[in-house]
Amino acid sequence: MMNSELRISLVGMPSTGKTTFLAAFWNLIQEPTVEACVRLRCLPRAAVYLHEIHQAWLHGQEVGHTSRDSGELILLDIDLGGREVVLEVPDLSGESFEDMFVHRRVTQEVDVILTAADGLLLFLHPHELRPRITLVDAIRMGIQPEVPGDQDELLALDLKKLPAEVQAVDLLQTITSRRLWARAELSSPRIGVIVSAWDLVEAEGLPPARWLAARMPLLNQYLAASLPTESVRIYGLSARGGSADASELATFDPATRAFLVDSAGVRTGDISTPLQWIATGA
Predict the structure, then answer these.
(1) Residue 164 half-sphere exposure, CB side, CA atoms within 13 Å?
(2) What total number of domains does the chain contain?
(3) Which of 60, 138, 157, 177 is buried deepest, with most CB atoms within 10 A?
(4) pTM for this model (two decimals)
(5) CATH number where 194 lies
(6) Candidate from 35-44, 67-76, 126-135, 256-265 with smallest mean pLDDT
(7) Strands 6-11, 119-124: pairing kind
(8) Residue 209 counted as domain residue
């Protein structure tokens, strides 16, 4: 079994950093470092698209969505330190995952990928945090909670505006239930939680695991209660390499620009670390 092909899927709502990670990871494949033992096993069909987003990344530009992002499957057949891995990106735009949350539907192609995955990288973005005010906080601030009298007001809920941690928990629950329904014998996949744009929150001084517990307690509690401790790791990722403008980022060394911070707060330039952990447990 150790020689069998492993499948890892990138999942996450729109604008959570999957495309930028893919561009930075493609750079790592083109110019592997000593720490990152990653290489291509074959040229992907999406090579032209990957070249396009890589060029944008090299020039420090925001790696935005293109028509290619809308629902098309991207596969990378790679070798990670001698382990054969298929990195699957079923929907870079995140629209399929948003549909799973908002409309409770999923395409057959995405469903097959998620139910067969050996591991998941779940992407989150700190921009999607919502202010957390309890009733006690509101009373202390002199804010009187309003209870709507019209039932129609209760039904006018925009699910897309719910906190990112609520959406992430629901997404994981949906994937878990689909996996159990499709193949009850499947074990829980290893899940790497990726907090994108880590450079924006690094100044808070919290390592990723503690940051998630403080800023997304619902998701943190769900992970702790639903999955074995050894099956989850939390990472902070700056795939763009910082919040500087494009002209300044373009002057940085591409090999060291993107960086990753592990659960304990240790920083590395090897952004393949979460994939290696899923593949090998190390």
Answers:
(1) 23
(2) 1
(3) 60
(4) 0.88
(5) 3.40.50.300
(6) 67-76
(7) parallel
(8) yes
Strand partners, 260: 237, 268
* Alpha-carbon span 118 to 87, nearest angstrom: 10
Residue 33 lies in a domain: yes
Nearest C-alpha neighbor of 11 from the set 84, 108, 82, 115:
115
What is residue 69's predicted lDDT score, i.e. its pLDDT?
A: 47
- Parent domain of 126: 6-280
20 belongs to a structural domain: yes
* Per-residue tokens: 69: 């992002």
Query: What would the pLDDT profile of 21-36 be if each residue is shown by its tens digit?
Result: 999 999 999 887 767 7
Q: Is 212 exposed, middle or buried (0-12, 13-18, 19+ CB in 10 A)?
A: buried
Q: Which residue has the tokens 């028509």?
A: 67
| Rounded distance between C-alpha atoms, residue 6 and residue 32, angstroms | 21
**Which string of DSSP letters, residue by residue, matches 74-110?**
EEEEEEETTEEEEEEES-TT-HHHHHHHHT----HHH
Give residue 68's pLDDT.
Answer: 44
Q: State pLDDT tens for residues 129-160.
A: 766 666 676 677 777 666 665 555 555 678 88
What is the spatial distance between Cα 68 and Cα 90, in angstroms, rounded to a whole number? Answer: 11
Asked if residues 80 and 264 have their Cβ atoms less than 8 Å apart, the reply is no
Q: Is the dihedral of CA 228, 169, 204, 273 positive or negative?
A: positive
Whole-number mean pLDDT of the chain? 86
